[in-house]
Amino acid sequence: MSKDFYQTSILPYAAIIIKLCRAYTNTQEDYEDYYQEVCLQIWRSRKNFRNQSEWSTWVYRVSLNVCMTLLKKKKNKYQHFATDYLPVANTEESGAFTDEALNQLYDAIRQLSEIDRAVITLYLEEKAYQEIAIIIGTNPNNIGVRIKRIKERLKKILDEKVN
Amino acid sequence: MKKSIESIWKEGFLSNDELVAPKINDLYNQKSSHIIDKFKMMFNRNLKIVIIVGILFFIISFLVGVPIIGGFMLILLTWVVYVGIKIINELENIDKGNSSYLYLKSFHDWLKSAINTYAKIYRFIYPLFFLAFMAGFWFANLSKGLRDQIINDPDTVLVFGIPVYWVAPILLFAGLFSIFSYKIYLLDIKAVYGSLMNKLEELISDMESLIETEQE
């Protein structure tokens, strides 16, 4: 069993996993659980990777599939993601989570359906429509239309927040 | 909204180096909380319990003088275990590295198939087990006194040596057991897995809407 697997095959792609997990979780505790579970499933499913795609594409797929089918634990309903509640470690070590506009965007993304969260996150990561379609298993012709609708919805949510 | 969502995203993650991953504790020995792995653990645990129960019944049947009935019960439970192992093995075909649509579809189909298979089995297993249990009780050494009392009672109606008015309600109960155990099992499953099934169906339906041609 390679102890280096996490260092060599997961950590370089942690950004992907982090960004996806944040789209599917509402609390810090869930986010950490999801991250851990995704890494575990990547480790356990590694033998199924058959070099038919890039490793990064495969990591996206596993991350998405795990996030969509992971049952959330019952939690304290008062715990939630908000800049006021970000743990000190995150605010100091990770500039990304201190960005209020980004947090608001994530709040808006979390109001989308689970498939739409996947589509928009992959789009924002500058994945081509073809690649998004391959990851999700859909028709690439419809991805553009769906993205347009999602962006309109996100814009509406964000504008409502501002107003 | 002044900035585009694309620029919010880009500026929010100015550098991937700034993203700090949560700490991982002993990744390689972690217990998974994923639903598929939970199913595997649950199935394996239940199968072990079934085997233990089958062996116990078999041993007891020898002690009370009805080894054939004990053997029959063990065969029934072995069948349950055999089907259970086949169902668990099908879980291995669900590849988390597949496209999301294929993954969700295969997981949904597996869950539906597992529920239907067990519902069908329990429709037979419960009443047969019940009948075997009653037969074991009737023919056991300990029941000789009761058996003789019933058979020798002049009011007892015997057909091929079987007391009809005793056996008929048992058979009727076994029949009702078959019908109701099936329905109770499905209700039970719905209570436990209904929300998961609904969620999977919603996800699949949403994905299928992406596969069909959309109008702009």
Describe this structure in words.
The complex is a heterodimer of chains A (163) and B (216). Chain A is 66% helix and 0% strand. Chain A is mainly α and 163 residues long. Chain B is mainly alpha-helical and 216 residues long. Chain B contains 6 helices and 2 strands; from the N terminus they run αααααββα. Chain B has a two-stranded antiparallel sheet. In chain B, β1 (158-159) and β2 (162-163) form a beta hairpin. The radius of gyration of chain B is 27 Å and the shape is elongated. The mean pLDDT of chain B is 86. Classes of the chains: A mainly alpha (163), B mainly alpha (216). Chains A and B meet through α2, α3, α4, α5 and α6 of A and α1, α4 and α6 of B.
Key terms:
heterodimer; A: 163 residues; mainly alpha; 9 helices; B: 216 residues; two-stranded antiparallel ribbon; 74% helix; 2% strand; elongated
**Largest sheet properties of chain B:** 2 strands, antiparallel
Q: Fraction of residues of chain A in helices?
A: 55-70%
Helix percent of chain B reads over 70%
Q: Are there runs of chain B of 5+ residues with pLDDT below 50, and where?
A: none
Report the strand count of chain B: 2
Give the amount of beta strand of chain B, in percent: under 5%
Poorly predicted runs of chain A: 75-96
Topology diagram in text:
The complex is a heterodimer of chains A (163) and B (216).
Chain A: H1 5-10, H2 14-24, H3 28-45, H4 55-69, H5 88-93, H6 100-109, H7 114-124, H8 129-136, H9 140-162
Chain B: H1 5-12, H2 35-63, H3 67-91, H4 100-139, H5 144-152, E1 158-159, E2 162-163, H6 164-211
Antiparallel strand pairs in B: 1-2
